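Before the break, one more example. Copy the sequence into your notebook; we will annotate it together after we see the structure.
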Amino acid sequence: MERGRLICGCLRLYEGGLRQAVREGARSYDDLQQMTMVGTSCGNCRVLVERVLREELARLSEESEGPRE
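Here is what the structure looks like once it is written out:
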């Protein structure tokens, strides 16, 4: 798994770990907090976490739709 950029400096959590959590079932910010503890210290990373969440959910949605003709 590619680490990607650092998202949560307090807990040293990287983008790759968050994307993996979404692939494993996280569907909300709260889900990501429960699965990874991201944003549970100071919360300054919330905007970045939500961006990663939206991007990964969109990517998963595109994959499930299959190729477009």
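The beta strands are 6-8, 13-14. The chain has a mean pLDDT of 93. Try to locate both features in your own notes.
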